[in-house]
Amino acid sequence: VKKASIVKAQTIKKDVTKAVTAKPKHTAKAKKPIKSNISPIVKKKKIIVVKGNELNLFLDISKATIKTILSDFDIKTLALSLVGNKKDIVEKVTSAFGFNYGKRLKNAISKFVNPTVSEVKEARKIVEEKAREYMVELKSPSKK
């Protein structure tokens, strides 16, 4: 029984050494990666740069004033006006509204895929007019 187990162990040892030192066998056909029929749903986002300084006035205004001016706006109009704008202006406006509304505003900005320059400029003009009206109201004395 001992002799049979020794012989068996030696054959196992030979098989292991053959497996370790053996070269891999290649088949005639090379395996190609399987192409899936499902294409990823990814829309390329064009980063537009809209020239103009319509919203630069927000750099000189406090966050509380920004919140007062823009609180009546639809989030889509406000987000569209901020698309392609300077990062510091976008950060100041989004942080003026607080965490939750600022997060929703950033999300709305990111959802605009390939807006036209004319759409962005139109939204900026609307926001700028509202801000200028507010500034005029502050400067003029109230009549009673």
Number of helices: 6
Tell me roughly what share of residues is in helical segments.
55-70%
Query: What class do helices, strands and sheet pairing give?
Result: mainly alpha
Largest sheet: none
Low-confidence stretches: none
Number of strands: 0
Described by its quaternary structure, the protein is single chain
Structure description:
The chain has 144 residues and is mainly alpha-helical. It contains six helices and no strands. Helix 3 crosses helix 5. The chain is elongated, with a radius of gyration of 33 Å.
Keywords:
single chain, 144 residues, mainly alpha
Annotate the secondary structure layout.
Layout: H1 2-21, H2 63-70, H3 75-82, H4 87-96, H5 99-111, H6 117-139
Short description:
The chain is built from six helices and no strands.
